Structure formats: structure tokens, C-alpha cells
Amino acid sequence: xxxxxxxxxxxxxxxxxxxxxxxxxxxxxxxxxxxxxxxxxxxxxxxxxxxxxxxxxxxxxxxxxxxxxxxxxxxxxxxxxxxxxxxxxxxxxxxxxxxxxxxxxxxxxxxxxxxxxxxxxxxxxxxxxxxxxxxxxxxxxxxxxxxxxxxxxxxxxxxxxxxxxxxxxxxxxxxxxxxxxxxxxxxxxxxxxxxxxxxxxxxxxxxxxxxxxxxxxxxxxxxxxxxxxxxxxxxxxxxxxxxxxxxxxxxxxxxxxxxxxxxxxxxxxxxxxxxxxxxxxxxxxxxxxxxxxxxxxxxxxxxxxxxxxxxxxxxxxxxxxxxxxxxxxxxxxxxxxxxxxxxxxxxxxxxxxxxxxxxxxxxxxxxxxxxxxxxxxxxxxxxxxxxxxxxxxxxxxxxxxxxxxxxxxxxxxxxxxxxxxxxxxxxxxxxxxxxxxxxxxxxxxxxxxxxxxxxxxx
Length: 458
Prior knowledge:
Blueprint lengths: L6 H4 L9 E2 L4 E3 L7 E10 L14 E10 L2 E8 L3 H9 L15 H7 L12 E5 L2 E5 L6 E3 L6 E4 L10 E2 L4 E3 L4 E8 L5 E7 L6 E7 L10 E2 L3 E6 L2 E2 L2 H6 L9 E2 L5 E7 L5 E7 L3 E11 L2 E9 L3 H5 L2 H4 L11 E8 L5 E8 L1 E5 L11 E6 L9 E6 L5 E4 L6 E5 L9 E4 L2 E5 L6 E6 L9 E6 L2
Antiparallel strand pairs: 1-5, 2-32, 3-4, 3-33, 4-5, 6-7, 7-8, 8-9, 10-12, 11-12, 12-13, 13-14, 15-16, 16-19, 17-18, 19-20, 21-22, 22-23, 23-24, 25-26, 26-27, 27-28, 29-30, 30-31, 31-32
């Protein structure tokens, strides 16, 4: 058993128990008007009977649900019973290539795997709704439906179409004005493509554009404006045959090629035509924040890194180590792409942020406030929540000794209010003052999660 040297390490240890608690202990007062559920997704099991996973992104998925009603909070957590989870339970080791961990295979199985893209359904990244069904997602296109009341796993959600793709994002965009969801699939083949699509109703994906990708880029998210879909291709790229035939963990097949720079591709949402392609210096990012159009320009806000070393920083050996963490410093950058030429400019808005969130109905429009987690130095994991006034640059911080927050999630029950969750307890903050309103304690640790959503009852 690992001896914990710092509190961060606890966030990367197994949570085995599943519980249902009707009434959590609360300090402060939960607002009576808050009526709905915060559901979080993330990895919760890293050490298996016969194998330990290598990366934070590889842990087996677990859902956590905090429900609010008349000032009370209930809590439920359950593993997602995916095919990856079931086989892991049976064998004590993984059966599919995860983000950075390869199954322990026999020589015969290693050779066999070279001729198939053995896709994991370990949906440990995010949640959303498709066709009114609640689903959990990862970066492989195998969403798993779950019951939003009990968190029980229902099964893989099948689309009613034949779009091809081996990789997707767990950050689909939704346009409330047109009632459309948008995402894309990367199809790895001799002639690889990004297949950009929308869903307006049901489970049929409508192809908008197929963009050629000679060496596909690893892109965790993308941008959406009123008229455009924006793919930002970082120079972390892969030869598709290497990915399909190597048998190595997924991310180890990608190579950092800074000489290629970063490419912005603007795609018309209506006809799928490429409107503009922009190039700029190399950088890497996981998360887009927002994008919008103003004065014949497209503004794209992202959390960026100078290179892909942030991925290496999130291997479990590094996160669980006794040495100080060495996590790359991020920059919140605002990119401005002029539509009448191919110039790209950016300015640095803030540093040391991740897991950014906004009041999502403002997606595709200019906005005022950004919420995120932050860190005081490269030697620690998250240690603060940050609210930034995007227009003025002013920021407010919430921090507390030995508290390491998770992604902030905005509550839409009442626009002036906001709430955030941290492991060990749920924290509710007033989004204007950033002062604590209440916290609800959980009787076990919650491993560091990734993303979640709030769903109101009305």
C-alpha cells in the first residue's frame, strides 16, 4: 500500500465502495430554491488485482450524484458497468488499450491486436444527454447510457447511422438557438479524416463535413460559434498506421512535431465548407472555453500549454510520487482570427488555470465570467477556485488549506448563484461574491474527477 506523503496522493487512490445516502451533513445553509442534481464523472479505480494503470485518464469510471431538495443534499456513487469494467473485474487486469496503459497480453494476443483497434468503453470523462438519454462519455465513440435517478448502467447507446470514426471528444457543443448538438469523429485509415456532425433530434448524426487529416492531431475539444465549427490542430500528431498496428497505448503513438505549428480550421456550420485555415506557433491544449464572432473576427478562448508535457505530468507515478509535482503552467489565451485575412493574434488573459467553465447558455456569445480551478505553483495539484471577470481581468479566489477543488459547475436554477464541487465534500459558493454558502460532507474520499453537469428539476 502506498504511504501518502501529501494530500494530493489521496485523490489518485482507489475508491471501492458504492453508497446511497439520503441526507448528508451540511455546514451552512443549502439554498431552499436549489432543486436538481450535480452529476460528476471521473476515474475511481487505478490499482487492479493483477495490474496498476499508468495514467490518471485510465482509471475506471465512476459517477457521483449530489441531489438538492428543500435545503437537503443526498449522495450516490456508482461505477459505470462498462464492458471494460466487467472484463477488468473478471480478469483483474484491463482488456483494452486505455489512454496510456496497454493490456498485459500473451504474444499471440499482441500480434492479434495489431490488426484491430481494440476500443475501450471506459467512459470516465464527461456526461451529457442525447435523445433525452443520459450518457457518459470518453474519447472513444462508445457512449454509455445510465439511469440519472439511480446511476445504474443501462448499456451502450447506439447511433442510427453509419458515420465512421475511432476517436471523438467528450465535449460536444449544444446550440440552444438551433437545438443542435455538434461533435466530430476522427477516422483513422490510409486516408484519415475528421468527420464533423450535428444531431438535431433522435440518434442520427448528420454529417456536416469530412476534413482530410494526413497526420491526425490529438484534440480533446473544439470550438463553436454562431456560424462556424473550429478545429484547432496541435502538432501532437499520429501516423494512423502506427496507431492501428503498434499495439502501444493510445497516446504513446502520438509525436510532438512543433515544426508543424498549430492550425485553426474554420468550417461553415451550414454547408460544411472550409472558410479559413490559419497557422500559428506550436502549442497544446485540452480545453476550449468559448468562441464567438465580433467585428468580422472569430474570438477563441482556450487553456493552453507550450507543449504536450502536461500529459506526461499526469502519469500516476508522477502524481503519486514523493517528489514535488512538476505540472506545466497553463495560459488562458484569447485568440483573434480575422475573417478578412489569415492573421492570428492572441493575448494572455491569465495563468495557472484548468477545467474552465462558463454559464453555458452564453456559449457562442461574448461572455463576462469564467470559472476554473487553479494552482499556486507547478509543484502542487489544484489548490484554488478562481472566478475571472473576462471583461476587466479582475479575479477572485477561493482557497482553503488542504482543500483541492475539482471542476466548478455553474447552477442554472438561479442565474446569480453558482456552485462548485470538491472531493470529500460538496462546496456551494455565491458566484458574485465567491463566498461560501454551505458544504456537505461525504463519508469517503472522492478521487479527482474530470467533468460533470448540473441538471435542474424544472
